[in-house]
Amino acid sequence: MILYAPASSFLRYWRSNVRRPRLYATLFIAAVVVLAGVAIYWFYVNSLSRVEHETDRWAVIEDVNRDQIAVEPTSDQVWSELVKLHQNGTRMFVGGIVERYDNRWGFRFNPDSIVIAQFTAEGLQGTLQLMSSDIDYWVDLGYAYVDAKVVEVHSPA
């Protein structure tokens, strides 16, 4: 490096050798921060369990979009129907009264109101994603149904 260089050569040196690495370093740091933010958000969303449950007897239903949620019917008759649906792999409408709940979807079907039906009113049908995107509507509506198949059943031994 020349000790007494004219100002124009100093500026040329600055632009070519100092500014670019700073720009690259800034862009690299920004990219790392964005990727870290996305990773943290992804792990947070995945930590909210799709199958959050409170009882020993519960089933996992899967809607037409392959989204899943746990249902915990209190009725023995509904439970036996869920077990049969799991064994047969049959799709039916599973639903009940929609209530807010701390899981991935932000709601669940009230365990005392879970119903399995072959037919329902079209206005009461939705997917888990649709219900999750407008929970207030579905809570105010009362009953709602998901065209689903039972993919897991869990009961105490």
Secondary structure blueprint with pairings:
Elements: H1 7-47, E1 58-63, E2 68-71, H2 76-88, E3 91-100, E4 107-109, E5 115-117, H3 128-133, H4 135-141, E6 143-154
Antiparallel strand pairs: 1-2, 1-6, 3-4, 3-5, 3-6
User: Can you summarize the main beta sheet?
Assistant: 6 strands, antiparallel
- How much helix is in the residues? 40-55%
Give the topology string: H per helix, E per strand: HEEHEEEHHE
Our count of domains comes out at 2
pLDDT < 50 runs, ≥5 residues: none
Commentary on this structure:
- The protein is of the alpha+beta class and 157 residues long.
- The protein folds into 2 domains: 47 residues; 97 residues, no CATH class.
- 43% of the residues lie in helices and 24% in strands.
- It contains 4 helices and 6 strands.
- Strands 1, 2, 3, 4, 5 and 6 form a 6-stranded antiparallel β-sheet that branches.
- It is elongated, with a radius of gyration of 27 Å.
- The protein starts with 6 loop residues before the first helix and ends with a strand.
- The model has no long low-confidence stretch (mean pLDDT 84).
